[in-house]
UniProtKB/TrEMBL annotation:
It comes from Anopheles dirus. It comes from the Eukaryota. GO terms for cellular component: neuron projection membrane. Signal peptide: none annotated. This is Ig-like domain-containing protein. GO terms for biological process: synapse organization. Pfam families: I-set, Ig_3. Residues 21-108, 111-230 form the Ig-like domain.
Amino acid sequence: VANHLPAPQENRIIKKFSPHPYFDFDVPRNITTRVGQTAFINCRVEQMGDKSVSWIRKRDLHILSAGTAVYTSDERFQVIRSDKAENWTLQIKFAQQRDSGIYECQVNTEPKMSMAFRLNVVEAKAIILGPTDLYVKMGSVVTLTCVISQGPHDLGTIYWYRGSNLVQPIELHPNDPSLAYPHRISVELKWTEALTSRLKILDAKLSDSGNYTCLPTSAEGTSVMVHVINGEHPAAMQRGCATTANRDQHRSVQVLLALLMLLVLAFERWHRTTALDNRAHRGRTAGGSASVRPTIDRTLSQARVITRARPVGTLPGA
């Protein structure tokens, strides 16, 4: 019975006394980091002996390193080796989405040993659900929900700011007995398929108005403007804003139409003036020709009368 040990314990004993290198599988092999952060891929090899570790980028089979020597012109890549030579960590500074993919930790045994790691570099952004301008009536409940749908699982926590001031609420947990007597300002943080933080403000006051920012510890933040109003219903205010906007738009259209009409009238006046000028010019030209014609006719008539009255062979002046 003593010879039949549980599989995990038996494996640990065999590995402990194994003369050959072997991988430690108790390390993260699916690593997610945010764009711009430093990514660490940790490969742990036991019983290394005189063997060395290389890192291979799978998509182009590029040998990134052999031992601690790096074979890439990209200075963001570096290999960190622990003092006991068990941990061989590939470090990628200022990680970009193009760095996502499979990386292999390879030991130069015969045959070669390798273990694959997947790196996911994501653009983690926070989103506040709902409109960017929120109108609430004084005395009502304000609920702001901030969600990060993708990103590293070690995002940490989410902080809320009103303007430049940190909102310091009482954090609530689902089984907290104080839920029966809730605080006016509270925050609930939970992990499901995403990291979600819910800021709740009871009995909203005018002083609660302001710009609220959801800021995760390792993701880009986002903001929403909260307007706490006294008297008028938020929907009515929004309708009023919409009516004002429609009125301004209608007024702008009217101004444009008036300008267009002025342009049309000016064009018609110019066209009419040009036509009158042309007609007057043609009239003056025709009148000049008519006054010259009678003079020519009178001269010709007088010449004919003189010719008929003079005898044949008589010289003028004789």
